[in-house]
Structure formats: C-alpha cells, structure tokens
C-alpha cells in the first residue's frame, strides 16, 4: 500500500495582479539564496559587531610598558657606593656610581618587534624626572656600571612650581623622541633593559608615573 503525502504551503497574501497564491519561502531559505547569489542584505547588528571588533584590533596593536624599580639592583648599587665611602676607596676609572636621589628601573619586553609611539609621564607637584638608559646588557652584581654604557640623550621631564595641575608636563621633545626610538631599536634584541631614574627638584617616587607606549610591528 502506497501512501503519498503532498504538502503545499501557501502564503496568506496574494501576488498583486494575480489570483493565484504565491509559494511561501522561509526567511532562512531566502537568506541562503541571497548569499549564494552574492546579494546579501545588510545586517546592522553584524556591521556593528564588525566595527567594534576593528576598534579592539586597533587597541591590540599598541603596547604600554611601565618603568618598574628593580629593588635588588638598586640595593647592590647603593651598597657599592657606601662601601667605597666607608673604606675611603676611589671608584674605578670611568665607573658610574648611583647617586642618593637615583634608583635602578627596568622595562621587560614580552614582545620585541616594536616601534616607538609616545611617552606617558605624570608628575604631581613641582619636580624633575630624569630617565637615563643603559646601552649594554648589564647588572651590578656582575660588573660595575661605566659611564660609557649610558645612552644619550636622556629623557627630561619636569613640572615647575605654580604650574596648574592639568598643565602638560614639560620636556625636551626632540630628545625624548630620539630616546624612545632608540629604546624600541634595542628592544628588538633584548628581553629586558635597565635605566637610571633620578628624582630631583622636589620630585618623589610616589608622585611620578612613567611608561612608554609602542606600536606592534606587523609583518607584511
């Protein structure tokens, strides 16, 4: 016994100008057909998500690294200066001793293909921040720091007494641009880089924040 079922689905509305009902087409089938023919309709929600995703990708292309104090290396440097003073000895010819208002800081590069973008520095109240880079791989527990290992130019940032709180930090723009570019170049061959940060003219560590913003290099 053969049982044949015929299913016909008709729309409730009629095609204008015709007395015959038009076949019903599901939205899913219509969308599939449009995509196959390349005539996909616009979907505002999907466009919105794509736009937001693009913004996220742009943010992912930047990397901000904050200078952090290396307490152990700072202590080693301080001990070296104090030891020479207590023993009445002279420093090694060309040696750079840590000054009382200085500390050793570091940048750790978890990514190395970088291009310099800009500095982010904030100083509360009057004071001056000096950032000096160390050009070679160095730690004071292995070798003494020598003046020839210091990068030039250094980064100089300051806020004068009487400057409004919302006033931009003063700096030597050409120097900090060149300095930032040199740091980005050195980052390509290093995982870590050390710096001497000097807090002068009333500046204190707790009132200063300093970081570098890089752009991530994308291979073509």
Task: Give a written overview of the molecule.
The chain is α+β, with helices and mostly antiparallel strands. It folds into 2 domains: 10-58, no CATH class; 62-216, Jelly Rolls (Sandwich). It has 4 helices and 11 strands, in the order E-E-H-H-E-E-H-E-E-E-E-E-H-E-E. The chain has helices spanning 27-36, 44-60, 71-87, 173-187, and strands at residues 10-14, 21-23, 62-66, 68-69, 102-108, 114-123, 127-133, 155-159, 170-171, 192-200, 208-216. A 6-stranded antiparallel sheet has the order 4-5-10-7-8-9. A hairpin with a 6-residue loop joins strand 1 and strand 2 (21-23).
**Tally of individual domains:** 2
The average pLDDT value, as a whole number, equals 80
- Main-sheet strand order equals 4-5-10-7-8-9
What would the principal axes of the Cα set say about the shape?
globular
User: Would you identify the regions where 5 or more consecutive residues have pLDDT less than 50?
Assistant: 1-53
Please provide a brief summary of the model.
By secondary structure, this protein is of the alpha+beta class. Helices cover 27% and strands 29% of the residues.
């Amino acid at each position: 016994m053969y049982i044949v079922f015929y299913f016909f689905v008709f729309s409730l509305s009629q095609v204008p100008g015709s007395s015959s009902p038009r076949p019903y087409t599901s939205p899913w089938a219509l969308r599939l057909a449009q995509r196959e023919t390349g005539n996909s309709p616009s979907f505002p929600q999907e466009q919105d998500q794509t736009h937001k995703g693009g913004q996220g990708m742009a943010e992912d292309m930047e990397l901000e690294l904050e200078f952090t104090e290396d307490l152990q290396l700072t202590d080693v440097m301080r001990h070296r200066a104090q030891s020479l003073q207590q023993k009445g000895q002279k420093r090694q010819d060309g040696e750079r001793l840590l000054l009382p208002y200085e500390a050793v800081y570091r940048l750790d590069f978890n990514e190395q293909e970088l291009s310099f973008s800009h500095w982010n520095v904030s100083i509360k109240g009057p004071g001056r921040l000096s950032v000096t880079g160390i050009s070679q791989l160095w730690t004071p527990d292995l070798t003494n720091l020598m003046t020839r290992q210091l990068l030039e130019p250094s980064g100089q940032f300051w806020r004068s007494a009487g400057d409004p709180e919302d006033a931009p930090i003063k700096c030597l723009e050409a120097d900090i641009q060149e300095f930032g570019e040199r740091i980005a170049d050195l980052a390509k061959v290093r995982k870590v880089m050390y710096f001497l940060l000097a807090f002068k003219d009333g500046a204190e560590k707790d009132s200063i924040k300093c970081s570098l913003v890089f752009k991530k290099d994308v291979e073509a």
